[in-house]
Task: structure prediction
Amino acid sequence: MKKNIDKITIQPLPHFSNRGVLADILRLDLLHPVVSGNKWFKLQYYLADALDSGQATVATFGGAYSNHIVATAYAANEMGLKSMGYIRGEIPEKYNSTLSQAMDYGMELQFIERNAYRDKATIMQKEKLPGVYCIMEGGYGKTGAKGAGDIMAIADTQPYTDIVCAVGTGTMMAGLVQRAAPHQKITGISVLKNHLALKNEVKALLDEADKEKNFTILHDYHFGGYAKHPAELIAFMNTLWLTERLPTDMVYTAKLLFAVQDLINKDYFPAGSRLLLIHSGGLQGNNSLPAGSLLF
Ligand SMILES: *Cc1c(COP(=O)(O)O)cnc(C)c1O
Result:
């Protein structure tokens, strides 16, 4: 798959840098228009595994708006693998843009009613279809974390004292923790409401030594829950665009940026801190907003 690794830049955030703290953002959203942000990093070793082990199909799971579903469909297609997506919920009357894109990239979709979807791991194991390589929802797993760790090597991340990222399944965060240097702290902003098990889910992907590293997850910036986007958040995204020329997505990165601004203003980061935020992509998720909501 052709990736624009050389387009990834570190963008300074001048309006965030105050109270003795400097903030920059790593623009992984520029990697690829479809497989953007952290999704490629998380998928890379899974897809290589599928190819190496001679499996013809990758199967994965997600909600109807899942960036991971589209990314998997596209990347698998590019690598000559078939793909199957198990989607949580009833068959919709009309497919949204995420689902139609996934279909355009050749993914075969199967809808699973919500309760049955919860048993998805069991379904995966039970089905064990020959020739099918299964990837957990959101790419969760050690192989995904290993891939996400490569984000730390995409630019010179050494000068930063703090890496701050949005957290869904915690796979990306686990990868960042694995590759963090001893002087670095990783802070994750959860986009889920009260999902307090998240820290243990991150830890489950780490070996014993990495569990002792400096990392924390904050739970106060979900704006009502996963994919909830009150008017205040949309207004913030437009302000960010006007002041920093930074496009964000409403599910993950807008909440990350809001959190960081708030935390800097509350002196959460000691003076002298150098922050690297991770722009983990996901901009296509904004397509489900009414036209004209965003200035970018
Ligand atoms: C999927 C996604 C995340 C969450 O990554 P996890 O590894 O599941 O925590 C963060 N940001 C964006 C834009 C995403 O699409």
Notes: The chain is about 35% helix and 20% strand. The beta strands are 10-12, 22-27, 57-62, 82-88, 107-112, 132-135, 162-167, 185-190, 215-218, 274-279. The longest strand covers residues 82-88. The radius of gyration is 19 Å.
